[in-house]
User: What shape does this take?
Amino acid sequence: MKLRIDLEILKQWIRPESRVLDLGCGDGALLASLTASHRIEGYGIEIDPAQIQRCLERGVNVIEADIDKGLGRFATDSFDTVVMTYSLQTLKRPDRTIAEMLRIGKECIVTFPNFGNLRARAYLLFRGRMPVTRQLAYQWYETPNIHFCTIADFEDLCRRLRVRVLDRVVVAERPPERYLKNLWPNLFAETAIYHLSK
Amino acid sequence: MPKCIPKDSVGIVAPQLLRFEEPLPLACGRVLPGFELMVETYGRLNEDASNAVLICHALSGNHHAAGYHSEEDRKPGWWDHFIGPGKPIDTERFFVVCPNNLGGCHGSTGPRSINPETGQPWGPDFPPLRVRDWVHSQARLADRLGIRRWAAVIGGSLGGMNAMRWALEYPERVAHCVVIASAMKLSAQNIAFNELARTAIRMDPDFRDGHYLKYGVTPRRGLGLARMIGHVTYLSDRLMGEKFGRELRSGTFARGTDEPVEFQVESYLRYQGNAFAESFDANTYLLITKMLDYFDLAREYDHDPVAAFRHARCRFLVISFSSDWRFSPQRSEEIVDALVAANRDVTYACIESDLGHDAFLLPNARYERVLRTYLADAARRLAEGGP
Assistant: This one.
């Protein structure tokens, strides 16, 4: 099965046989893939019973929990890598969660939709309405995505939290952004993938 | 009685009494000179004996987990909804073994059995047991049945403690451990409730310091009250409200009458207490509630549950229920956190339910789906030579 592109890209930063915690692991696709290819010892955290059921079907370790209630139950430096893909924007306090991720993991990987993307900007500018995109197909009143940010916003937060950015990859799958994304990431990238450490 | 036995039932089953002659050294230092276990099994053991599942019952449970004892049987076994062909614990896939625990009162050796040294019932002199004694007796049972390793050991509540102890005592003999509505040790509140129940039994004049069998009496009132206390803690406030509310069974509040009033909930509890007092043994109740109180998974691992779980080799499934306050989700999460820290495979689901602690025995679509899916995955792994 084909992995979502941000998941495929971040795999390069995971060491074989390492311990990985996946916050908001969804259907467990990343953990299943990493278990097969990297023989990791992985755990997913997920709040949605339907997604937990898919994890069970894949046979990956999944723990039902609400990230917003805190991650104090996990010991400091108890994981090699803490991953959080496409969940940042659903959290009540993304800043606190990122600080916690860096406490629990030696390294972290965060992926999120770039709200500074040209299409989002144009949507708001020309239609005057909150963007409803292919990836985030929710109306403003029903969306689980409550804290959108742009690449520039995220990098501000990293500086404020004194986080080291080890690597960054930006993604845009459709032309022309596909060719322009690295020229001006905050305008052209659809998705940002960050590799972080303390 | 079931007019006809449902298709997804294991059908008519018969328990068997197995005798184990070899003396069993107990945690308390005493030795049980041989013992008997009353056991039911469902499904068929496969050729390489890799499909056996051990069901560990809780405080008031017994060996009759599924099916009917006769066509006239009014009710099936206590976990019939979960065990049977096509059910979450699928008897077409697994060979399911459910013994009555040692110290019990449903046919296995316990306080009601005859002490071979005196020729009298053991009564209150039956040796105090620990959960690990159950595990060792069940290991003998596995040997007898030709089971080298359990595909899964499954237990709810006290049965969950039994299952976890299996994973630590015989790591190489457990492939999957399913711990439902359980805890690594009881809280002070839990011990307090158990002591209330024990006090009720001891205060019954018919208890006679535990020698009631000798006098041909039964401490029914004490045992009934013990069960009533326990029962309240197995339900949630909300469920009791929904089930009974302030409905009256008899009497009236109308002015001008002094007719006594009985609430439905009072009548229900009394019925539960009486029914239990008829079928259960007071000394067994004392013995097993003490086992619950004394259980502390990590005591001998320097009180470090992470160090304890490092001894386990199996995969774990932990399940809790949102309204369970006797064994709250938090207790289950402590198990999960220790397993994660010990680098053990674990999946955890907290099932939304209004049914309190009793939820682990009752139908619930998500609970059944989680158990079914996990065990199907377990079977797949075992078929591939895993886990």
